[in-house]
Design brief:
mainly beta; six-stranded mixed sheet; globular
């Protein structure tokens, strides 16, 4: 089951979010994600056919499970203020998809333009 994680994005700002993929051990151990791909999107609501934004994904340090999600200032400026939904998928091979995180993405309206 995906972990719940809510995020807040300030409209017009560059946004970055770092995640570390871990196993289910206690304490958790970082997972090598070399060879895996990731997808992350924002939509107005989970069933929407319209993608509001797609995160760029950089595997900062795949061997230690560190993955960076990013949106440009132009992308966040294009988001209307309000609530959205987002999730992050990890794809292993051709057929295995695991949703790592899902939650609400709140976009706060910018003042200075």
């Amino acid at each position: 089951m995906a972990a719940t994680r809510d995020i807040t994005i300030y409209q017009g700002d560059t946004y970055g979010h770092t995640i570390t993929v871990t196993d289910d051990a206690t304490p958790p151990v970082a997972t090598d994600v070399t060879g895996r791909t990731f997808e992350a999107q924002i939509r107005r609501y989970p069933g929407s056919d319209t993608i509001a934004a797609t995160f760029a994904v950089d595997m900062t340090n795949a061997a230690t499970g560190v993955v960076q999600l990013a949106l440009t200032a132009t992308q966040t400026a294009g988001l209307a203020a309000g609530p959205y939904a987002f999730d992050v998928h990890m794809i292993t091979g051709c057929t295995s998809v695991l949703t790592l995180f899902a939650g609400e993405c709140l976009v706060t309206a910018e003042v200075t333009r």
